[in-house]
């Protein structure tokens, strides 16, 4: 794992940021009967937020989730395969959730002046890839988790063979969906989006990160550099691909795509740091999955390597870095992405 050190993302100086709207007093329970404390540390919440305070992020996210859910439902209709496979795919893909990755793809497209409809196939594909990775992640040969989003994991509900194949089918369907669905954008943009998504799903992303994660279980030598490699690949790469692909189909130039990708890079790592903190401080009921499982498996986590307060401070740094990448874009168009970053930072499950 020491060979992975080159992938370590250096921690920069803390910048000022703030909590938005209803999340301003968001807290995370440490344990029953103890006072709650914020997830993120090292962030100045007194900075004025007039530029985005009028933006209704909950309404925005809800509208995007509704559009994505409808499109995903349509994508799973009329599949020529055994009903059990379709049901298994639907069970996980339509299980709900905030649809943050699809919303990110759409928001990135709109950021550079594109229309949401151009990014919808990419948004659906991102969610298919993400869902496939979760199905495989939960299986006994991987993380062996019986719960996902508060109900039995796919392999518990449908059996391991069907769950494995449902994940495979969703992964393949993702690329078919982009190829068939990106009819309102030039073919070269669609192809670039496919390349981004494929890279994030395979050896340049999720697959590599998952292998490194499993190899690091119980290893006392796993340090921060190796941990960062795991989560850059297992988590951040797909978030990057969602944002970059959305920007590409929206007509962004290379410099804009790269800035959006860097924003998403920090956002992806931020989400993992918050996940690690919640794994320590929240309950299984709150998370909808088994709490404390990483510690029980001997996995390296940010709280384990940095301490709980250090992990919270690092989350604050990542939030500030993500928002800094949006400076220079049209302020009104950055509102969804700024609020998305804060939503990830201050969520409770």
UniProtKB/TrEMBL annotation:
The cofactor required is:
Mg(2+)
Q: Which UniProt keywords apply?
A: Isoprene biosynthesis, Magnesium, Metal-binding, Transferase
SUPFAM superfamilies, per the entry: Terpenoid synthases
Give the GO terms filed under biological process for this record.
isoprenoid biosynthetic process
Q: Which Pfam families would you find in this protein's record?
A: polyprenyl_synt (PF00348)
Annotated Gene Ontology cellular component terms: cytoplasm
Q: Name one GO molecular function term.
A: prenyltransferase activity
Highest taxon, organism lineage: Eukaryota
User: InterPro entries, from UniProt?
Assistant: Isoprenoid_synthase_dom_sf (IPR008949), Polyprenyl_synt (IPR000092), Polyprenyl_synt_CS (IPR033749), Prenyl_diphosphate_synthase (IPR053378)
Pathway participation: Isoprenoid biosynthesis
What is the similarity comment for this entry? Belongs to the FPP/GGPP synthase family.
Which NCBIfam families did the record assign? Answer: FPPsyn
The entry's protein name is: Geranylgeranyl diphosphate synthase
Give the source species.
Digitaria exilis
């Amino acid at each position: 794992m020491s060979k992975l050190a080159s992938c370590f993302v250096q921690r920069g100086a803390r910048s000022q940021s703030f909590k938005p709207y209803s999340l301003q007093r968001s807290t995370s329970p440490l344990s029953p009967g103890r006072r709650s404390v914020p997830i993120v540390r090292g962030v100045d919440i007194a900075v004025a937020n007039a530029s985005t305070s009028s933006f209704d992020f909950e309404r925005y996210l809800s509208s995007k989730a509704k559009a994505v859910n409808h499109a995903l439902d349509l994508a799973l209709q009329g599949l020529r395969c055994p009903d059990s496979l379709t049901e298994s795919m639907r069970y996980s893909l339509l299980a709900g959730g905030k649809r943050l990755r699809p919303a990110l793809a759409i928001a990135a497209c709109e950021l550079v002046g594109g229309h949401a409809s151009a990014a919808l196939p990419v948004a659906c594909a991102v969610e298919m890839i993400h869902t496939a990775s979760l199905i495989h992640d939960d299986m006994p040969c991987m993380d062996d988790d019986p719960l996902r989003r508060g109900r039995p994991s796919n392999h518990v509900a449908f059996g391991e063979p069907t769950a494995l194949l449902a994940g495979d089918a969703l992964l393949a369907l993702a690329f078919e969906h982009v190829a068939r669905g990106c009819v309102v954008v030039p073919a070269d943009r669609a192809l670039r989006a496919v390349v981004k998504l494929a890279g994030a799903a395979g050896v340049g992303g999720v697959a590599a990160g998952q292998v490194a994660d499993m190899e690091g279980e119980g290893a006392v030598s796993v340090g921060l550099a190796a941990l960062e490699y795991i989560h850059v690949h297992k988590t951040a790469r797909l978030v990057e691909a969602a944002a970059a692909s959305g920007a590409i189909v929206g007509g962004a130039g290379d410099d804009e795509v790269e800035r959006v990708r860097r924003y998403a890079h920090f956002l992806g790592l931020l989400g993992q740091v918050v996940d690690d903190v919640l794994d320590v401080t929240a309950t299984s009921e709150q998370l909808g999955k088994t709490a404390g499982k990483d510690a029980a498996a001997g996995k390296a986590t940010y709280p384990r390597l940095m301490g709980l307060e250090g992990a919270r401070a690092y989350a604050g740094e990542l939030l500030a870095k993500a928002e800094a990448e949006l400076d220079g874009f049209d302020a009104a168009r950055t509102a969804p992405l700024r609020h998305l970053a804060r939503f990830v930072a201050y969520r409770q499950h």
